[in-house]
Design brief:
Layout (H helix, E strand, L loop, with lengths): L2 H25 L7 H25 L4 H31 L8 H18 L3 H10 L8 H13 L4 H26 L1 H13 L1 H7 L5 H21 L4 H15 L3 H17 L7 H19 L2 H11 L6 H9 L10 H4 L17 H5 L1 H23 L7 H15 L14 H13 L6 H25 L5
Helix pairs in contact: 1-2, 1-21, 2-8, 2-18, 3-7, 3-8, 4-5, 4-6, 7-8, 7-9, 7-10, 8-20, 10-11, 10-12, 11-12, 12-13, 12-19, 18-20, 19-20
């Protein structure tokens, strides 16, 4: 990608955010964000766009080993500094070193502390009883077992697990490079890795006690190992076992991610370039993967997924009912048929004071995803132009399937549920950027105008739905 073009993308990104913030703050002045949240948003935007541009300019021609070392060390350094700093920030803001309104995080910490005591006492029967009786199912138990293991071995401190999150997130940037460069070219891999180093979403969750960092780490490594298995054509025991184990582990964090990985791998095998797999090999691989999927479906995991389906996980009706119960206007629009078209873009940046503290703190973080969504979608246009759709089979199908599942669910406006799709969106966005042509700018500018209108309108609707303004 030409340097001037990359600089242009950064300038438009920064300008678009500042303009949306200015219009919202002036038009909805009584409900504008407080200076603390504005500072978070502006710092986030400048951090991502400026450092991505600077490091892409400096690193893009480095030797591969030098490049990967810089990616890992920069990512690790940034995350470690953030993890330590955010502990003091949260303590200053909330009185405890947990994020705002940390209901789930507190639950994970307290339960893991209690379970680790039971393990030390050798009381495994009671431990299993507590685990089964106090969680929402199998997909809620993997992270608890992980924390319990850490607490049992290293004590009940909250810094250690977050430093491990920083290490996982840093290595994930390297995995993103390997996956993107192998599938879509060296330029795409380098840009995707650099953006991953500075992506606010990846950094933010290393400083929380939520399970998103571990989940995204496992999903990204599973995709990378799946891609390596097929493209290397080295079907050794370990090359097969590693992606199977990584995929299996994701079921313990969020079952839908595991099933999405299996589905995307099947589609990848069926539609990958012909030179990678013979017809016989395709059928054997699909058969084995289908058998593994059936084992999960006819296990307690499958029953749990069925229960989730029964409570309208895939209909979105419960969100309509929730907003109606709260007496909000426009509740009927909180439905998948309106949300699904924005699967790659949602949730929109919150720029008014009615949201919770986490959303206000992450207003710039939301905008980065809103902005990158255009290039992720544009990558499909570029792939069709260059007749490289088969190269998109694994990354594209995984990202699209998962993003649509969340858009069709009750979690469409919950930013953390979108996290597992972010590595794919980032890689697709990098491909869209590196294949962007000057004649395409009309679409780019149109999207940014539409995004600006959507963000301002969304913040107005948030107030109007609560009857604050008319």
């Amino acid at each position: 990608m030409p340097t001037k073009l990359h600089r242009h993308f950064s300038i438009i990104g920064i300008g678009g955010y500042l303009l949306a913030l200015f219009i919202t703050s002036v038009w909805l002045k009584p409900y504008a964000l407080k200076p603390l949240w504005i500072a978070w948003g502006v710092a986030t935007i400048l951090f991502f766009f400026c450092l991505t541009y600077y490091c892409h300019l400096r690193w893009q021609h480095n030797d591969k080993k030098v490049f990967l070392r810089k990616v890992f060390l920069w990512a690790l350094g940034i995350r470690v500094v953030y993890v330590v700093s955010i502990l003091f920030y949260y303590y200053w803001q909330t009185g405890v070193s947990f994020e705002y309104k940390a209901a789930d995080s507190w639950m994970y910490h307290r339960m893991a502390s209690y379970l680790s005591e039971l393990v030390r006492e050798g009381n495994f029967r009671e431990m299993l009883g507590v685990l089964v009786g106090n969680t929402m199912g199998f997909s809620d138990q993997g992270y608890l077992l992980y924390l319990t293991s850490l607490y049992t071995c290293f004590g009940n401190n909250i810094l250690g697990p977050r430093l491990l999150k920083a290490l996982m997130s840093a290595y994930m940037c390297v995995a993103i490079y390997k996956l993107a460069s192998r599938s879509l070219g060296e330029k795409t891999g380098r840009l995707a890795a650099i953006m991953a180093v500075f992506l606010p979403q990846f950094i933010h969750y290393t400083g929380t006690y939520m399970k998103e960092t571990e989940l995204v780490f496992l999903a990204t490594l599973a995709l990378e190992r799946m891609d390596y298995l097929i493209r290397s054509q080295r079907y050794t025991f370990w090359n097969i076992l590693v992606p199977v184990l990584l995929t299996a582990l994701t079921f313990g964090f969020r079952t839908v991610v595991g099933m999405t990985l299996l589905a995307s791998f099947v589609l990848y095998v069926l539609f990958c370039p012909k030179e990678l797999l013979s017809k016989k090999s395709r059928m054997i691989t699909v058969g084995i993967t289908a058998a593994i999927a059936l084992l999960f479906l006819f296990s307690p995991v499958g029953w749990e997924m069925y229960i989730i389906f029964k409570i309208n996980f895939l209909t979105g009706e419960d969100m309509v009912e929730k907003y109606q119960h709260l007496g909000m206007n426009y509740a009927e629009y909180a439905h998948y048929k309106y949300m699904a078209p924005g699967a790659f873009t949602l949730p929109l940046a919150n720029l008014v004071e009615v949201a919770n503290e986490n959303q206000k703190m992450m207003n710039g973080t939301f905008f980065v995803k809103n902005y990158l969504a255009f290039f992720a979608l544009w990558s499909f246009v570029a792939a069709i132009r260059q007749k490289r759709c088969r190269d998109f089979c694994l990354i594209g199908t995984y990202t699209l399937i998962y993003a649509l599942i969340i858009a069709f669910s009750f979690a469409f406006n919950s930013e953390r549920f979108h996290q597992p799709a972010l590595p794919g969106i980032l890689i697709l966005a990098a491909y869209g950027m590196t294949r962007f042509k000057r004649k395409d700018f009309a679409f780019f500018y149109s999207y940014n105008i539409l995004l600006l209108v959507a963000i301002v309108a969304w913040n107005y609707i948030k107030l109007a739905a609560r009857g604050i303004i008319f």
